[in-house]
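WARN retry 2 of 3 for item q-0093 after timeout on previous attempt; input resubmitted unchanged.
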Amino acid sequence: MSERTSIPRPTIKRLSLYLREIETQEADGAVTVSSRTLGSALGITDAQVRRDLGYFGQFGQPGIGYSVKAMIPRLKSILRIDREWNAAVVGVGNIGRALLNYPRFTAKGFNIVGAFDIDDSIIGSRVGHCRVAPIRDIPRLAVELDIEFGILCVPKVVAQEVADLL
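OK item q-0093 returned
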């Protein structure tokens, strides 16, 4: 495999699109998927698909295509989404609430373990499966809950300050 720095940025950006399309193909019952099918779905050539995937080794077989069952875990591994990531939502307004109640995060490997806000009227309440804690508790709870990244649903003017707490 080539060094990460030598992989073109557009290729890296397309990897998640390939994964999403292959998952769609799997849901539709496909066992294999061709570079032509992937390229057509994404508006690129089949040659570009083969070039992109070639940076990461041999994936498919000429004339047969790519095994859907093999491609999904391989792409997840390349994208580093083949494990669970502990995350916290900071800002439990409308967007934060929607994210805390979004069931597909878990399916995608994101485990929302914390919710934080400054509004005393919602601190202590449960949203999704998280109890809302005050923002001042972020430094302590980030360690206790092993929070690996934050999803910021706060005004732009305080976003950096909140990010620094994580």
